[in-house]
Amino acid sequence: MNDGCCSSQFAELIAREVSPLEHQEHPGLEKLFDLSSQDVSSETRAELVGHLATCEACRGRWKKLQAHLHDEDAVLRSRVRVPSFAQYIGERSARRRSVPAWTRQLFESKSYMVLAASAATLVLTLGVSIPLLRGPALLRVAELSEEVLQLRNQVATSPWTGNTIASGFGTSRGITAQDLTTLNWENPRVYVVKAGEDWQEIAQNELGDEQLWPLLWLYNREVVPADASPKAGTTIHLPTPYGG
Amino acid sequence: MAVRASLWREERLAHWDLLLSAGTFCLAEVETLVARSAREETGADRAACVLLLAAARLAHRGQVRGRRNLRAALRYWFSCTGTRDRPDELALDQLEDGGLLDFIGLYLSWPEALATVGVPMTGAINYMALKRAEQQLRKQCAAEWTRLFGSTAPSTLMEGGESFNE
Question: What global pTM score does this model have?
């Protein structure tokens, strides 16, 4: 006995209760599996417990099965689930919805951050300098403000800015500027989605790089819901390769 | 008769399984089984019937701590049966809902048996809990025996009783 206490007459009676019996039949592996999975009726469980408690061979098989199931469970639990494309987009949209649009733009695009930083610097500069500059100096500041405004409008409407934004977006996703500058996003072409195609496949087949799929998705977000793949027959827009 | 005795024993073991795992057991079913079999059984089998009935009764109506100690004692005794089959690293907390088959062959120490019912293995070993569980069980066995057979419980169910080994 383990620590000298298992010596009462009860221990002896109980040991006798589980002493081996001669069984004519033994449960199959399927029944043992059901027992391990708790997938048995109370009557069947009672029968199996009575048998296994008094049959060492079957009990050994059952314990081995338990150990295998335990190991398998541990392996399954350790595996990381890879989300499907639709899940990825869905989660991404949910994340996007949870923050204000201007915050998203600010954090996703480096150019917006530069713009925001410039604007903040300008406001600070003006806030400090205007009280100091009076009379003709105020006129100079007004002219300067006008110039900055014109510059900002020019920047916002120029294709260069669009490319910079797209570049910032692409860089964060492993898309190089080289990939983007080979495509003309200003004059899109129409493309009808074929059955079974998803964004990656379209990006791979039509643009030659499946990594570009997020841009296609962004480009067509007015047409295709954010949490779904494009359906067959949907008309979407694709950029045209320069010189293509 | 021998076949019937084997079937009754297997039936008793199914009830022991529920008592050990603290599952939903039906006292009335145990009473029926014992009433049906105890008179036909002899010797140790008859004593085993009475022991099961006494344990079921205590588990049914006893106080929380008493029930916990009883379950630990039963787990302890059942663990000390069969061929030793104990993993190198035994996760006691995972045995909390364990049944009869989980305990056979584990050869738990008393503190380990207590740990399976949620008593942490720290401080002095509480052997008194085991003694108290034994005393309660012995007292209940004596009462059940008298109720069933109208006589005093044999020494096989009382402390220092004769051995069942024939």
Answer: 0.58
